[in-house]
Here is the input.
Amino acid sequence: MKNIIIFGAPGSGKGTYSEAIVERYGMGHISTGDVLRAEIKNGTEVGKVAKGLIDNGQLIPDELMIQILAKTYDALPQGCGVIFDGFPRTIAQAEALKKMLAERGHDMGVMVELIVDEDTLMKRLLNRAIEQGRADDNEETIKKRFAVYHSQTEPLAAWFEKEGMRHTFTWEGSKDLMLANIFTFLDTLK
Here is the structure.
């Protein structure tokens, strides 16, 4: 299986769909959110810096994130592909990831873009805050995260398009339908 970059706005289902893809295809999974939350929980220096940025709705510096990802990537079994969940978020990060993978003789694979309207995203994130007790999922911080996404991350879709990697899937009100459409596409990659 090729590497997959799962891409979308906060709350679009990147983690949910990543888990389903990993289960179906036996891939490795790197969730930048999970990696960063572990660093924060463990009180590492990286975790302290990350917490301050995340609490303010900001992104983690590229150099730091690539170092963390390279370490995580190298620890995974090779040959079954990896799904990158929540990274890259900027063109500079995409170029750094492409370089890091090329240094290992691997390529980025494909980008799976999840398109979900913002009202649905806000409802999901506020609900997640209640269910998971996530302090970073409050309305003010969510609006900041949407603004950061639109200004810094969304333009990356055009970069993936130019690389010939972009494949979009639009929310039509059903997780199962969205997942079936993604699986149908991924089945063609084997």
Q: What stands out?
A: The mean pLDDT is 90. The first strand starts at residue 4 and ends at 8.
